[in-house]
Structure formats: C-alpha cells, structure tokens
C-alpha cells in the first residue's frame, strides 16, 4: 500500500504511508480515529500489514546497531557512533509500535497500556 485514502462525508484524505508513518502520538490518535471510523476492514488489514513490515525494518536496524556497538571497546568513538545510531532508530521504532496499536484499535495512550 503506497497511499492510504480515507473517504468521509465531506471529502477525503490521502496519506503516503511511508512518509506519514511513524507519526507522533497526538497525530496518530487523530488519524487512527479517522481510519477506524471510515476505512474498511480490508484497508485496515493492509495498512497494518504495511506498518508491521516497516516496524520489522526498524527493529532489524536497531538490532544491527546494538550488535555493532557491543562488539567495540567501551569509550571508543565508533561505539558512541553506533549507540547514537541505535538511539536515532529506536525512537521511530517505538512510535511505529504505538501507531500500530492505535490503528488496530488499541488503547490511545502508551502509558495506560503499561498500567
């Protein structure tokens, strides 16, 4: 799925999936509400499949960066570099998990999920 089209009574919205997701939580809440209200189950299933595939990609990158950092001696510049790469990739990975949870009809707040 390249473009997600959400059609509602007064018009429609098209989102380029790879450019839009992962999005920050306030935006994810709003878009998940529209998706759950106006999209068919087939479209939601296809979107969730695409989002999970993207999340797997982020997870693979995180694992690779973490592995490279662990191989290097403590305090080395390359270790710091790979740890920074990991941290930069971990943020969108977590966002993607929350986006998937919201689109699949999960809770609207990640903090409530842990409670």
Describe the structure.
The protein has about 120 residues and is mainly alpha-helical. It has one domain (about 5-105). Helix content is about 70%, strand content about 10%. The chain is built from five helices and two strands, in the order ββααααα. The chain has a two-stranded antiparallel ribbon with strand order 1-2. Helix 2 runs parallel beside helix 4 and helix 3 (about 40-70) runs antiparallel to helix 4 (about 75-105). Mean pLDDT is about 90; it is low at about 110-115.
Tally of helical segments: 5
Determine the strand fraction and express it as a percent band. Answer: 5-15%
What is the percent of helical residues? over 70%
Structural category is: mainly alpha
Strand order of the largest sheet: 1-2
Q: What is the residue-averaged pLDDT?
A: 92
* Low-pLDDT ranges: 109-115
Q: What is the H/E string?
A: EEHHHHH
Largest sheet entry: 2 strands, antiparallel
The overall number of domains is 1
Would you report the number of β strands? 2
Which outline best applies? elongated
Rg computed from alpha carbons, rounded to a whole number of angstroms: 17 Å
Distance from first to last alpha carbon: 34 Å
């Amino acid at each position: 799925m390249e473009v997600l089209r959400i059609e509602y009574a007064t018009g429609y919205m098209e989102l380029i999936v790879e450019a839009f997701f992962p999005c920050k939580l306030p935006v994810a809440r709003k878009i998940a509400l529209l998706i759950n209200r106006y999209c068919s189950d087939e479209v939601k299933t296809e979107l969730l499949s695409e989002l999970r595939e993207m999340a797997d990609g982020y997870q693979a990158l995180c694992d690779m960066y973490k592995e490279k950092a662990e191989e290097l001696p403590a305090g080395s510049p390359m270790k710091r570099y790979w740890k920074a790469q990991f941290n930069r990739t971990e943020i969108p990975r977590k966002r993607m998990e929350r986006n998937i949870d919201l689109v699949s009809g999960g809770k609207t707040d990640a903090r409530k999920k842990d409670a």
